[in-house]
Specification:
By secondary structure, the protein is of the alpha+beta class. It has one domain (13-85). It has three helices and two strands. The chain has helices at residues 13-18, 47-71, 81-85, and strands at 26-30, 33-37. A two-stranded antiparallel sheet has the order 1-2. β1 and β2 form a beta hairpin. The longest helix is centred in the C-terminal third of the chain and has 25 residues, at 47-71. It is flat and about 45 Å long.
Amino acid sequence: MEKPQKKPGWISDDDYHALPEEIFIREFSVGETVYVTTLLDDKKYHKEELARLYKNRWSIEWNFRSIKTNMGMEMLRCKSPEMVRK
């Protein structure tokens, strides 16, 4: 995948210029879901394991969203696990 020729408005000039000219990605399917990753070694990173990890992460993010919405805490900012538990 090549770096966009035109800098997107949301990125700073310094960050844009620090990006590589291209990155390599791996695309794979598990069931009906298509995944894209920069973990290229399919022997080391099996697609089923990556799909499982992604589903677990999605579940965690969904739970964070539910907690934040239900508790009216759209912005959670804590510096330690102890503060999160409070």
